[in-house]
Amino acid sequence: xxxxxxxxxxxxxxxxxxxxxxxxxxxxxxxxxxxxxxxxxxxxxxxxxxxxxxxxxxxxxxxxxxxxxxxxxxxxxxxxxxxxxxxxxxxxxxxxxxxxxxxxxxxxxxxxxxxxxxxxxxxxxxxxxxxxxxxxxxxxxxxxxxxxxxxxxxxxxxxxxxxxxxxxxxxxxxxxxxxxxxxxxxxxxxxxxxxxxxxxxxxxxxxxxxxxxxxxxxxxxxxxxxxxxxxxxxxxxxxxxxxxxxxxxxxxxxxxxxxxxxxxxxxxxxxxxxxxxxxxxxxxxxxxxxxxxxxxxxxxxxxxxxxxxxxxxxxxxxxxxxxxxxxxxxxxxxxxxxxxxxxxxxxxxxxxxxxxxxxxxxxxxxxxxxxxxxxxxxxxxxxxxxxxxxxxxxxxxxxxxxxxx
Length: 405
Hints:
Elements: E1 5-7, H1 18-25, E2 30-33, E3 37-40, E4 43-45, E5 49-52, E6 58-61, E7 69-71, E8 77-79, E9 82-84, E10 95-100, E11 106-108, E12 111-113, E13 117-122, E14 128-130, E15 133-135, E16 148-151, E17 157-159, E18 162-164, E19 168-172, E20 178-180, E21 183-185, E22 189-194, E23 200-202, E24 205-207, E25 211-216, E26 219-224, E27 227-229, E28 237-242, E29 245-250, E30 253-255, E31 259-264, E32 274-277, E33 280-282, E34 286-291, E35 297-300, E36 303-305, E37 309-313, E38 324-326, E39 329-330, E40 348-352, H2 371-382, E41 389-394
Parallel strand pairs: 1-2, 2-5, 3-6, 4-7, 5-8, 6-9, 7-10, 8-11, 9-12, 10-13, 11-14, 12-15, 13-16, 14-17, 15-18, 16-19, 17-20, 18-21, 19-22, 20-23, 21-24, 22-25, 23-26, 24-27, 25-28, 26-29, 27-30, 28-31, 29-32, 30-33, 31-34, 32-35, 33-36, 34-37, 35-38, 36-39
Antiparallel strand pairs: 40-41
């Protein structure tokens, strides 16, 4: 395709919009290179174009109302732009960039600041969102917009984006997306899925968010190589599964979180399983937390070390022991390895003794960690008056940590 180079000069007339005029006059497939300067925003791109800001010194600034750049054509590329000052209305989804019913569109290496929503994708397919910096408006956490928002948007690549101080990165009703090597901090949900399938989530890093990665009402997805740190507070968790089926959760690290792995009624679809393998659950308040009926998960080869609680089941009689645990490393394993094969000679068993009474009777939590509960727990283990509840049986616990630990 032949590109036409068009130079646009910075805004000098507050009533005119030379950038919009240039877009309207450009031939489809043209390339607009913007020299350094400030350009009036609230523009609409309705034809295939390339707009290049060159080193992000070209600033496209909205008027504080609506969306700064609205793209309604396929085969558009926005790159190296600084974009700022969207509106602040949630019901209008005021954004830095909106991609509406497009395909093969790219947003590359742009900086979006002072925008309610960052990049909003509605029925946008086969697009690439890569290397962008996104931060929302300086509102309280719940009033910010989403940094990146996918709505009925399939088969996109979202890679190497840096998100900070926004609300969420959300993927709703969207399938077949690749989300990799992104970084998120000081958000609510660093990555949130609803009613999705066949997405791949790999090698992302998330720190200091309320929730790391949460999969809800979704299936057939792979999450691998992700690192979630410092998801703290009452809602804090590293990776969560809610009504999620046929998942592979592999080679992830959840560290310093309130809950490392949270499992709620997953898998949900009959006849499916979730495979949770070779993850590191390190120094969390709770390594694995089960809520509601959650069986048919297979947990193999995971490293469970330095957590205050290894396994929590907050719903009495939900049969979490029916999940398969095999070959995991437990730092509280009390058995031996006489033949030196790296596998414990006896099973590792996690039980619910007196010190777990607070799980089902919240008022008891006031005494958690107290000498009274310590004595009761010691006596219950020494000469139990009733059979303790079995949470986990790992028949072949691993005793050696991997070389990469």
